[in-house]
TrEMBL record, chains A, B:
Keyword tags: Hydrolase, Metal-binding, Zinc
Organism: Bimuria novae-zelandiae CBS 107.79
Name recorded for this polypeptide: Guanine deaminase
Domain Amidohydrolase-related: 75-468
Function: Catalyzes the hydrolytic deamination of guanine, producing xanthine and ammonia.
Length: 476, 476
């Protein structure tokens, strides 16, 4: 499998960019990153005058392989902290529904069909290839309630070398009878089976880790949630679930958990609110709930594209960040319509602007400029923020000595003097969707990539120094 | 030039889709459209059982050329009712600015550099090729204040065969001295020169038409606006300008035109509010202003992507439509970050959802479902709506007998049984960004294209039956 292929020492030569803090994107136009046989970053040179500079400084790297980029830059791999692999075939199908009728109409019937493992293999194979092609090197996946299909997703991620959290989805109510755990015992037994499988095929969890996955509070009875909390503790496993996405859902939780002080308390009472918990959406939380989440050290996955498509609401991300909560981005396919974290970063920026224009249709809106996310901040959420959400902040998220090399090579091309490409737009090799005229600063090139780039610009992708995706534009 | 190339009678065979009313998207899975040597649609068959069916019904077409699509559908060409061709190199560069500081920082310096005609040629050539590649068959362009560069844009559109309105931008104040019309006389003389040129190279205006283009009220003194109104009337020309985009701009208009009842009245008093007037943005208009626009028969270009990026506001499109105002979509590059009307249609849908969630950060938002645009409605704005905005509703916008054939061939590919494409995502020929699994209905295929498609799916583009763009995926 890709993750354990032996690799040779490699120097990644050329421009690179990464986030060094929430507000600061560092761009080095003439950089060099040395990655050893284990995929660890051994040196980072930020300003070299020539390639020989590097080997003069690091003589033991004289015979290292060179991978260079001259019309773009290296960027850390993206981290998708929340998505549903089985829902991928429903991408773009949602009409005017909101969360609860959307689940009933589109989601449950499709997920239930993953009883068919062959179908699951085709869809999962396709989706993992898609997310990799968009530069996603780590992905927190929801699977379905089926043990066999969930284990297949684990295998595919391991085989392709994409870091993943893979969760078998638990639910003992709300969903239709044809797609529900028969009882708590079987829910726990099946979840345990998926955890065991993941730990068998990847003992140290270097690539794939299991994650305890109650769909969300309305889908699970209180005793079921409590047993899942116990399981997560016993297994030392991550937890992922949804919280406070839709106002109808919030009402349901109030009604079905009358003893609990809040939605957040429902999870806390089941011991599901841990340092290893990823809560998706978190739109309609009270200040008190956010305080509790902060106190417990739980993390939040912000899914703006999905929240807009299903009119769930606008998550006030800036407030979460100001309160010190750890936030990453989630594509939330198929609530979200794209498997691309780059596209999600754009949506995070747009949503922050809608928050800034809080009363959008008022004749004279007063802008709340503080609510706006900058390009740098959106990229931080997509990389270091996401790494912290999935508990890998020591290993990935940026180009630091000692971290593992999870990266993408971004190529941008350049507009020919004649202007057009003689009708070759839309074809491979024609420069992709970003038009670089030659008068852009390094900062402006990154901005252009963020606002108009797509998978065509992602020429190659590495996880732990292993090449896990490339296009015809990647030439060593 | 492409527009006058002789063509042979052609039958476009396969699925097609188009909007037959604001709410209704018609999808014919087994269609045939007959286009004659003039590029006119002579027949539309909505349900054929076999290709021979067509020639049995239309024997004189037995030797016609056949262009067929089997993994997608034909769709009317898109109409972009508002964009700025010279601003294309600034795409993605806007930071956290809003309209007035954005103009000062990014726009005016770039536009001023179009004094250099060689630079203009490169950028215009690139941009026209880009918009064509996204299926835009008609485009309302703002150029700059330079006569020579503006005439070059006219030539390029004519040469490439893209229908266009091309406007020399007028402004006798607000912009810096280095980029301003010296006086009203020269503003009118230069505008007239561009009108004359367009009418010389395309006498009947079949492809390119001139358009009188005051940038917007704050950029023009009242006498200048009045002279431009007079010029438009004398020339029987279209008018395009901006209105009520940003609250700071609205305040400025109030201050600089104290005698006028409203922003809309400023244009009306200058005789610029005509049936041939395209007003971009129209976000913060009063009901009275909208009534006046409706009464004058002026049209509105909705530019949601730009309005979000520059936090200008959310145009309440549903209200405009309910009031009977004609609306189309505009990419508004480089306020907007994409030259694609498909992307703009998505933004129109997202913006309508933000309007629906009118108090986005409130803990319990009440949804205004009536504000949501459907997929069909967004596509209507992108085609028939846009056609009516640019005065071509009798000629283009849908597949009706007697209309000219402006169309795009959408190809979708299909996911192989093995799921992934062996790492070929991002390359040409790998199916593009839309994943079709084979269980989708024709309606669902269109939805998938709208929400995840891009220029890779636009295999070929025709204007008046002439092929004006194709990719390697287009095989006759």
């Amino acid at each position: 499998m890709a993750a354990s292929v032996p690799i040779s020492k490699t120097i990644y030569l050329g421009a690179f960019a990464h986030c060094i803090s929430l507000a600061n994107l560092e761009i080095c136009a003439r950089g060099a990153i040395g990655v050893d046989e284990q995929g660890l970053i051994q040196f980072v040179e930020k300003e070299i005058s020539s390639p020989s500079d590097v080997t003069t400084k690091h003589p033991s790297w004289a015979s290292a392989q060179i991978v260079s980029v001259d019309d773009g830059f290296f960027f850390p791999g993206f981290i998708d902290t929340h998505t549903h692999a089985p829902q991928h075939p429903n991408t773009g199908l949602f009409g005017k529904t909101t969360l609860l009728d959307w689940l009933e109409t589109y989601t449950f019937p499709l997920e239930a069909s993953f009883e068919d493992t062959r179908k699951a293999g085709r869809i999962y194979g396709n989706f993992v290839a898609r997310t990799l092609s968009h530069g996603t090197t780590t992905c927190a996946y929801y699977a379905t309630r089926h043990v066999e299909a969930t284990n297949l997703l684990t295998e595919i991620c391991l085989e392709r070398g994409q870091r993943a959290l893979v969760g078998r989805v638990c639910m003992d109510r709300l969903s239709p009878e044809y797609y529900r755990d028969a009882d708590i015992e079987s829910a726990i037994r099946d979840s345990k089976a998926c955890i065991d499988y993941a730990r068998k095929v990847d003992e140290k969890g270097e690539i794939v880790r299991p994650v305890v996955t109650p769909r969300f509070a309305p889908s699970c009875t209180a005793p079921c949630l409590a047993e899942l909390g116990k399981l997560a503790r016993e297994e030392g496993a991550f937890v992922q679930t949804h919280i406070s996405e839709n106002t109808g859902e919030c009402e349901l939780v109030k009604e079905w958990f009358p003893e609990s002080e809040s939605y957040t308390h429902v999870y806390d009472e089941a011991a599901l609110l841990t340092e290893r918990t990823i809560l998706a959406h978190a739109i309609h939380l009270s200040k008190e709930e956010r305080r509790l989440i902060k106190e417990r050290g739980s993390k939040i996955s912000h899914c703006p594209a999905s929240n807009t498509a299903l009119t769930s609401g606008c998550c006030p991300v800036r407030e979460l960040l100001d309160e010190g909560i750890t936030v990453g981005l989630g594509t939330d396919v198929s609530g979200g319509v794209s498997p691309s974290i780059l596209e999600e970063a754009r949506h995070a920026i747009w949503t922050s602007r809608f928050v800034a224009m809080s009363a959008p249709s008022a004749p004279v809106a007063t802008l709340n400029n503080a609510a706006k996310l900058s390009t740098a901040e959106a990229l931080y959420l997509a990389t270091r923020g996401g790494a912290a959400v999935v508990g890998l902040e020591e290993k990935i998220g940026g180009f630091d000595v000692g971290k593992e090399f999870d990266a993408q090579m971004i190529r941008l091309g350049s507009v020919p003097e004649a202007g057009d490409y003689e009708g070759t737009f839309g074809d491979e090799g024609a420069g992709g969707p970003v038009d670089i005229f030659g008068f852009e600063s390094p900062e402006e090139k990154v901005e252009k990539w963020v606002y108009s780039g797509d998978d065509r610009n992602c020429a190659a992708v590495w996880v732990r120094g292993r090449l896990v995706h490339k296009t015809a534009r990647y030439k060593v």
